[in-house]
Structure formats: structure tokens, C-alpha cells
Amino acid sequence: MSSLSPASSPTISLSLSQAQRVQLAAQGLLRAPRKRAKRADVVDAIARMRLLQIDTIHVVARSPYLVLHSRLGDYEPAWLDEALAQGKLAECWAHEACFVTAADYAWQRAWRGQREGHWAHRHAARMHREQREGMDGLLERIRDSGPVRAADFASENRGVSGWWAWKPEKRWLEAWFALGDLMVARRDRFQRVYDLAENVIARLDPPLDETAATLDHVALRRHFVLDSVRALGITQARWIADYYRLKPAVTEQELAPLVASGELLKVSVHGWTVPAYVHADHAELLGQAAQGRLRATHTVLLSPFDPLVWDRARVLAMFGFEYTIECYVPAPKRRYGYYVLPILHRGSLVGRLDAKAHRTEGVFEVKSLHLEAGVEPSPALLSSLAEAIAATAQWHGTPKVRLGRCQPSGIASALRALWRG
């Protein structure tokens, strides 16, 4: 095997499938969990990914819970809520609104000044300029009376839904959260409970490390670049900025000193015209991949907001998987469905399914299921897929699976037979 020491040109070459396995291993998706999940695994999984994006769509489990299920298997969703309330996690703007570990929050807070171009910060700053009296009054109320939820304030537009119908207090709470003056102390049935940032920070476990706050822009950006490469496992330069929404884009020239220092390893991937980069922490993983010792055995359904698939350009180049979150597409223009979950099978993205959990009926509805063109519906694939769907349904508390249309159509009867058997 080639040396993994730093150099100005790649010193090791991987096939695309080997590169895929490095990324899956770094993200915790290469193999199914070998042990039953425990509470600490929730924080450990987020530490591995560096962040966990929050989304409120609830046709199946909300995205952060589903992302964890893909990595931990059958775990208690309440563990995520407990970790937040205990100060082991914090919420902040990162990729988008995300959970991060308490240990990582100091970096996110130090970076706040660099997020002024982000839409959430711009919107919040404008709102404070235009509605200063109301926003300042709300902050004083929390200072005097303690944490609040948006639900603690009466709505002026009962029966109207959507962000455009948010009551003023909800908008102000979100604005103060974006600006960093408020944080989320805990969640009550997924509703944010807001408190003064200093109160939430005082409960962080481990305590806030003030070191990050002393660093300049260059040092902080360097941290997030390295963090992104570590989380991705392997990446091209052009994909790095998206992970934490860094601006401007990361270039090969910016990465060259990190390669020279040995913090990043430069790798060639067959079929790519540009180099790939791996964090030095993953040197052993890289060596295993180059020797063909990384085996992908996991079959699982992924959230549309999973870090593996949220960058559409990256997932297309890495896995040949063209993906759009169609819940934001008008219904007549949807190709696959409203909330479509990618299917990961033994290192490949082999298909997608549109799902809905009917909790009162105990039914997990698969409205449609599509295998990718060229994917052979072998008995092994169908068996693993049936098991993954059944496991997800059971975890949702909707153990009865109702299967709709499939492509190819012949797989429907095979899947139903596996569930009956």
C-alpha cells in the first residue's frame, strides 16, 4: 500500500466504491449496529456527524429522529429530547437549524459573527430594526419570568397555518434564536422552549470552552473546513463549504497548507478529474478501504435531510443518485412522492420510497417504491429491503405495512410474501 504521508499530489488511489465506503464509515452507515442502542449513542452519533439537521415534517418520524434510527437502529426517540434538556446537546444555526454536541457549541457560537450573510440572520436583524420595541419587550419578559414557548402566546390567525401566519411572538422568538440571544432549553412535544442564552450555556455538559471565542476568522474557518472533511470521510474541495454553509467556497488552494501540514490527506479516486481529501483522523480507515477491507452490509431507509444525501451534487457524484426533496415541489410536478426516503443497501443507493406513518391505525404506508434503473431485484436485496421497511415500521409504532405501487411492479408480491413469512 502507498504511504499516507502528506504530499503535494495524491499518494493513494481508490475506486469509487472504495471512496463510497469511506464516506459511509465516517457517517456511521457502513454496517448495521452490532449492539442494542443506549442513551449515550445519541450524542456519539451526532458527534460523528458533527451536526444533526432539524426539520418538522411529520409524515414519518421527524428527520432528526429518523437520521439517528438509520445509524442506531431501535432506539428511544425521547433520548434526543433528554440529551437536549440535560445540556449534552444544543440547538443553533449550522448547516441549517441543527442539533450539535455541547462540546461543539462553542465553535458555533464563536462563528455567529460570520453568519451575517445567512438568510436567517439577515431576516432576524431586519426584524429587530423594524420591530425593536416588541422584540426587546419579549426578551425582557423572558428575563423576568423565565422560559417560554411560542404556544404560550395567543394566535391572531386561528385556523391559518404556515410560516407566513406565525404570530409576532413566534417570529420574535425565532429571530432572537438566530441572533443568539435566546437558545432552546428543551423541547415539549417537539415545541421549542426558549430561554436566555446565558442560562442554557450555564447548563451545558461539558461546559462551554471559551477558547474558540478568542480565535480569528481564519482560525475558525480552518476548524470548520477540517471538521467538514472529517464528517464527510472523503470529499472533493467543492463539497466542503456546504456542510457548514461556509462562504466563500473552499478551494484546492485553501486546502494545500492543510495537506502540507498532514492534517488532510490527498487521494485520487478513479473517474474523478480532481483530488479527494480525507482527514488524518481517518488514515486507518483510508488504508482499510485501499486494501478492500471495508465491507458495506447495512440496508436502511434514510431521511431526506440525512447528511449523506442533503448535498444533491455530492450524492450524484458519489453514488450516482439523482435526488430532489419533493415535499417542496407542487404536487402535480412530483415524480416520486411527497416525503421520499432514499434506500441504502450495502453501500449503494438502490431506490427510494414515499412513506406515511398512520399512527392511530398502526399502519406504515409505503405509497410507492422505486428501484433505480439497472438495480437487480435479487432475493438478497428484497429480503434486506423487506427487513429494513419492517424494522422502520416497527420503530414508528406502526408495525402493519401497507404497500402501494412498485417499480418494477413484480417486486410487490415478493415483498408481501416476505412480510407474511
Automatic annotation (TrEMBL):
Pfam families per record: AlkZ-like (PF06224)
Name the UniProt record assigns to this protein: YcaQ family DNA glycosylase
Species for this entry: Dyella koreensis
